[in-house]
């Protein structure tokens, strides 16, 4: 059995090596480049493909995999929004993801960023760098006095809820699917609008499906409390960035922590050498605001998560090849 892994980063290498040692019967080819038309030929002769990339898994690439007889594609991440579903189905390719490499990693980061916003640490860091050790006017807010609205109560949303509760916050939630435990606790509101109207903080953990695109738009912001705090560790397309900027300018939104951004592909996880060279003016505008925290999609980025992404995806691919299925199979619609 031979598996090729695409988009392998140096920091993932030790975990691939560990998996190879634990699975000596599998031949593993590690490819640093991403899976696209220029690299797909490398997969010829392999039984399965493991990949992580934000760039699309296109129809033409999936058709080529189909022609090579490859029926197993395992993503090292959770989101499958960049996969061409029709091409996957047309080529009878089975797809797995890693749904729970570490929901806690993302939840912990989200709350960390919220605390940084509420305690104005960006502003204090900036002042201190200029030798200013004064307090005023940056009185902070306390999370224990707030209502946190969690949008989507999947694994990450639920992990975040536990942490918010540890801080003493009141938590409410919206989701089309109700978690039975949370349902019993009466956490759910009936509509997104109700969540917007009642929340001091909005913690967004929804997937990037078509129905959610730009769900936080002018209309949604207008229904929120004045001075709401927005947290998006999920997907950039969930927020209409222009609408967010307007809401920040007007003070409707007190601040935002954005670990994702709708135009992040090709920008995040790249070193441009200096701030000026970042090729996105809107992003730079957000980055320069003292009440906005922009991070380059790093909420997931812990040792535990990266190890699990590599090992779980490789094992899922092996299962697909050996058994034709896996407990991480994604339902492609
Ligand atoms: C995902 O798992 O879908 C993520 O958003 C993390 C990714 C950047 C590796």
Automatic annotation (TrEMBL):
Domain D-isomer specific 2-hydroxyacid dehydrogenase NAD-binding, residue spans: 113-299
Positions of the D-isomer specific 2-hydroxyacid dehydrogenase catalytic domain: 7-330
CDD domains linked to this entry: LDH
Keyword Kinase belongs to the record: no
Methyltransferase recorded as keyword: no
Domain of life: Bacteria
Keywords: NAD, Oxidoreductase
Family listed: Belongs to the D-isomer specific 2-hydroxyacid dehydrogenase family.
Protein name: D-2-hydroxyacid dehydrogenase
């Amino acid at each position: 059995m031979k598996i090729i892994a695409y988009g392998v980063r140096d920091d993932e290498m030790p975990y691939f090596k560990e998996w190879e040692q634990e699975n000596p019967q599998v031949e593993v080819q590690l490819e640093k480049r991403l899976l696209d038309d220029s690299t797909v030929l490398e997969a010829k002769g392999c039984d399965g493909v493991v990949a992580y990339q934000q760039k699309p898994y296109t129809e033409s690439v999936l058709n080529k995999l189909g022609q090579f007889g490859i029926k197993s594609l395992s993503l090292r991440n959770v989101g499958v929004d960049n996969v061409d579903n029709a091409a996957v189905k047309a080529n009878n390719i089975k797809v797995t993801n890693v749904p729970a490499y570490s929901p806690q990693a993302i939840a912990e980061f989200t709350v960390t960023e919220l605390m940084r916003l509420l305690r104005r640490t960006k502003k204090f860091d900036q002042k201190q760098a200029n030798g200013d050790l004064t307090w005023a006017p940056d009185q902070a807010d306390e999370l224990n006095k707030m209502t946190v609205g969690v949008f989507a109560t999947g694994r990450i949303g639920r992990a975040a809820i536990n942490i918010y509760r540890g801080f003493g916050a009141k938590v409410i939630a919206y989701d089309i699917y109700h978690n039975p435990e949370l349902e019993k606790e009466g956490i759910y509101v009936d509509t997104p609008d109700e969540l917007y109207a009642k929340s001091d903080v909005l913690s967004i953990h929804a997937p990037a499906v078509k129905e959610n695109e730009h769900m936080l738009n002018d209309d949604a912001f207008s229904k929120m409390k004045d001075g709401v705090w927005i947290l998006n560790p999920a997907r950039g397309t969930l927020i209409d960035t222009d609408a967010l900027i307007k809401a920040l300018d007007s003070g409707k939104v007190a601040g935002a922590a954005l670990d994702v951004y709708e135009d992040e592909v090709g920008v995040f996880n790249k070193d441009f050498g200096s701030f000026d060279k970042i090729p996105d003016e809107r992003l730079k505008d957000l980055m320069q605001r003292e009440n906005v925290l922009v991070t380059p999609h790093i909420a997931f980025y812990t040792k535990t998560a990266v190890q699990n992404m590599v090992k779980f995806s490789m094992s899922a691919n092996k299962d697909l090849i050996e058994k034709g299925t896996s407990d991480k199979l994604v339902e492609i619609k």
